[in-house]
Every structure is written in structure tokens, then in C-alpha cells.
Amino acid sequence: MGSGFSKQKKQMKAFQDQMSKMQDEMRKLEVTGSASNLVEITLTGNHEVKKVKVDPSCIDPSAPDALEDLIYTALQDVLKKVDDAVEVPGMPGFGF
């Protein structure tokens, strides 16, 4: 009976080690999304914002909604890319 528990304990430790490694990889992962190359947003695999770049040509003080739309589109793009990059194979929707 003790050997079965020992085996489960080893399997759990291996699983925890694998999860820790995946979390480290996600922290290091950087993905960039964009909107017409006018706005770029870079996130880590943990959804931490690393960089936001705005092309000055798209800044029009009389039309802030245009820039807002570009930011929204770039953010949606990068979030999808991060989710695709960190999805666990065989487990759709189970990302970190």
C-alpha cells in the first residue's frame, strides 16, 4: 500500500515541476499584437503589459475615437495571440 502512495507522490511532484516550468516559460514569453501597424502592444504570457507603441501619425486630437479603436484592436489581437501561445495541448481553453 505504501508503494502506491509513493508512486502517486512522485507523479504529483513531477506534475508540479512541469507546471512550474510552464509558468516560468509564460513569464518569459512576449507576444506583440497590432492594429494596422499604427498601434502595437506587447504582453507576456501572463498578460503583463511590456510595451505600447503608438505611431504619431495616428494621433489626431480632434478624433480621439480613432486612436481608441486602434488601441482596442491591438489589444484584442495580442490577447488572442497570447491565449493561442499558452494553450495547453489537448486541453482547449486551459491556458494560464
Architecture blueprint of SSEs:
Blueprint: H1 2-28, E1 30-35, E2 39-44, E3 49-54, H2 64-86
Antiparallel strand pairs: 1-2, 2-3
> How far apart lie the N and C ends?
35 Å
Indicate the CATH class: Alpha Beta
Estimate percent helicity.
40-55%
Q: What is the fold named in CATH at topology level? A: Ybab, Chain: A
Task: Catalogue the unreliable spans.
Answer: none
From the 3D coordinates, which CATH architecture would you assign? 2-Layer Sandwich
Question: Please, how many helices?
Answer: 2
Please indicate the count of domains.
1
Structural class: alpha+beta
Tell me the radius of gyration.
20 Å
Kindly state the number of beta strands: 3
Described by the principal axes of the CA atoms, the overall outline is rod-shaped
Amount of beta strand = 15-25%
Would you give an account of this structure?
52% of the residues lie in helices and 19% in strands. The chain is built from two helices and three strands. The chain has a three-stranded antiparallel β-sheet with strand order 1-2-3. It is rod-shaped, with a radius of gyration of 20 Å. The chain starts with a helix and ends in a 10-residue tail after the last helix. The mean pLDDT is 87.
